[in-house]
């Protein structure tokens, strides 16, 4: 809490600028905000979510792609002291949850599981950021379905995901362990950013081995898939 308070005090005395583009006097400008209003399903672009036997991957809803202004803003929020972006990120994940709710019609009760961060990262940041996202998801879902945050998955060891390649992220996924299980209620995972999908896949596996049904995941953003235009500099991606 002391770290977070210091960050907020500094925000009062230092010039504020948009975390996405640098526009002065606003933490998050309207132009950059548009990049977190592209809500949709993005599991097809996440290779580590592929399942065996031709089963469809875990559905993943995000508010936008982890590129451009969003790719600059999320690290600033997580590790750059930009506590003023918390409401922005919570609003983004709530919009993703609102679309996920349409696919959850008929589900009466739901456990919302934040992907756990390393304890050292939580202490450094002064709060559990993904936990705040999960609380926002529950607030968005309200009573349809009736949602509650569950710390069903814990993290024991591992490294911060920032800067890790695909293989290292896959190895890092072994740090997740089951804390408790409620096999009678579907679960929804929540994370800040999804890159390869290795973390979500690991959390799903942990829960599935305990007989828990994981119905999907929501996040602020996901890494855009590698499409043909993206392989040729100078061409715009659809």
SSE layout and pairing:
Elements: H1 2-13, H2 30-33, E1 40-41, E2 60-65, H3 68-79, H4 86-103, E3 109-114, H5 119-125, H6 129-141, E4 146-149, E5 153-155, H7 166-172, E6 176-178, E7 187-194, H8 198-208, E8 214-222
Parallel strand pairs: 2-8, 3-4, 3-7, 7-8
Antiparallel strand pairs: 1-2, 5-6
Brief characterization of the structure:
With 238 residues, this protein is an alpha/beta fold. The chain has helices at 2-13, 30-33, 68-79, 86-103, 119-125, 129-141, 166-172, 198-208, and strands at 40-41, 60-65, 109-114, 146-149, 153-155, 176-178, 187-194, 214-222. It is 35% helix and 17% strand.
Structure overview:
The protein has 238 residues and is an alpha/beta fold. The protein has a single domain (2-225), classed as Rossmann fold (3-Layer(aba) Sandwich). The chain has helices spanning 2-13, 30-33, 68-79, 86-103, 119-125, 129-141, 166-172, 198-208, and strands spanning 40-41, 60-65, 109-114, 146-149, 153-155, 176-178, 187-194, 214-222. Strand 7, helix 8 and strand 8 form a beta-alpha-beta unit. Helix 4 crosses helix 6 (129-141). The longest helix is centred in the middle third of the chain and has 18 residues, at 86-103. It is globular and about 50 Å long. It starts with a helix and ends in a 16-residue tail after the last strand.
